[in-house]
């Protein structure tokens, strides 16, 4: 239940941040008007013409690219998948078996591979974890790029993963999640929690 509330609050905060970040050209009380001009009140609509997107594109034949035109920010150039250099992941808590399980789980998320996801995260359907099933059911893509330092905690291993994701609501943005692993009765690693 707490996970759902935190997830809802995160979505609301991100939506507010996205809505506010697009208003960089208007003059508001926090952004005084140039000398000799009166700042419009917050209740008056802006009379500025929207900028012409074609004017911001480089001339044909030019090698110049528009600002921010890279794989990390442009949805049409976004490539989902696991882009982690596994040979550079050196952590005493991530043995070969745990590293292989982590790699298989991240791959299952990016394909999406429902059977692999369910096998590696057997309690995915419980009330506390049901929201994370959205990674397989909604049109969202993940690009996993980094594994953080693992932490041993209460008989389980917390592994931070981060990268960029894309969805229809927020577009392309950075994310970070913690995956909690524990060995089952057969001594195989499995995901027991995502936050």
From TrEMBL:
Highest taxon of source: Bacteria
Signal sequence annotation: 1-24
Stretches for region Disordered: 23-77
Biased composition (Acidic residues): 45-55
Keyword annotations of the record: Signal
Protein name in UniProt: Lipoprotein
Species annotation: Paenibacillus zeirhizosphaerae
Lineage, top ranks: Bacteria, Bacillati, Bacillota, Bacilli, Bacillales
